[in-house]
Automatic annotation (TrEMBL):
Any single Gene Ontology cellular-component annotation: nucleus
Gene Ontology annotations of biological process type: cell surface receptor signaling pathway
Keyword Nucleotide-binding carried by entry: no
Annotated protein name in UniProt: STAT6 protein
Main location: cytoplasm
Organism: Caloenas nicobarica (Nicobar pigeon)
One Pfam family it belongs to: SH2
GO molecular function annotation: DNA binding; DNA-binding transcription factor activity
SH2 domain sequence ranges: 114-213
Locations listed in the record: Cytoplasm; Nucleus
Keyword Phosphoprotein among UniProt keywords: yes
Keywords for the protein's UniProt record, in alphabetical order: Activator, Cytoplasm, DNA-binding, Nucleus, Phosphoprotein, SH2 domain, Transcription, Transcription regulation
Biological classification of the source: Eukaryota, Metazoa, Chordata, Craniata, Vertebrata
Stated family: Belongs to the transcription factor STAT family.
Amino acid sequence: QVLSLPIVVIVHGNQDNNAKATVLWDNAFSEIDRVPFVVAERVPWEKMCDTLNLKFMAEVQTTKGLLKDHYFFLAQKIFNDHSARPEDFQSRSVSWAQFNKEILPGRGFTFWQWFDGVLDLTKRCLKSYWSDRLIIGFISKQYVCKLLSTEPDGTFLLRFSDSEIGGVTIAHVIRGKDGSSQVENIQPFSAKDLSIRSLGDRIRDLGQLRNLYPNIPKDQAFGSHYNKEQTGKD
């Protein structure tokens, strides 16, 4: 006899997401010499960060992993705590329920369902943009407003949608004649949207977008991702 890697049997495609969560948790956090099926209910947040990073890099096939700011955003999301500082999360532990049982506040999905959607979108449509560090991705809408509110008109950045699974949105500054600023978030693009027209071409189409945050002209940042348009095509 031999102990295999974890296996989950499913009978329908809609169980795939939960199955992946079970396999990931078991692979990452079970002890090698454990009793079969016994795995910790809670794990240190730092261990979870390592696991999410390894999973992201392996799934997307990129050498550019998650950064400290990304972990801070993910911690705020999974613990539903927006008042803590980054160091406050280091001593916390996260439960299986927080990872893949409890619905995120105001949403219809769990933390893992959301993260897995980001993985799938990035792997299918955004790998080169992520690898070129053109997508901040893991950042809250509130923090985006703070970053962009003092920037010139047309400054923008890319973040993963909070409200939809597997969506990427563009946040950009509109500055009025009186100097007041407003940050707008464009309706998120799904993998289906980006298969019809790529993210680079959509950014080129939108005249109100000028500089990628902090101050890189959009053609310089995304020029290598533009498709050469055929003349005469609308």
